[in-house]
Write a structure and sequence with these properties.
Blueprint: H1 8-36, H2 45-71
C-alpha cells in the first residue's frame, strides 16, 4: 500500500520551512541578545557565559539555515 498523505516535494518543503524557520528565528534571537550584552561588563563570568551561549546559538542557527539552502541547491 502506497497511500502517501502528501507528495515527497510537499513534505520536503514542509520540513525545510519548519527547520529553516526555527533556525532563522534562533539566529535572529541570539543576534539580538548578543547586541544587548555587548556593553555589559566583560569581567563578569555570567556575561561571558551568555556571550558564549549566544555565539553558539548563532552558529547553530547558521548551520540550520545554510543546510536548508544547500538542500534546495541555493548555495
Amino acid at each position: 500500500m502506497n497511500a502517501a498523505i502528501v507528495s515527497q516535494t510537499a513534505f520536503e518543503w514542509f520540513v525545510t520551512i519548519l527547520t529553516g524557520g526555527l533556525a532563522g528565528g534562533w539566529l535572529v534571537y541570539d543576534v539580538i541578545n548578543l547586541i544587548r550584552v555587548r556593553r555589559a561588563d566583560r569581567r563578569d563570568p555570567l556575561i561571558r557565559d551568555r556571550r558564549f551561549g549566544y555565539v553558539l546559538g548563532i552558529l547553530i542557527g547558521l548551520v540550520g539555515v545554510v543546510g536548508c539552502l544547500r538542500f534546495h541547491d541555493v548555495m
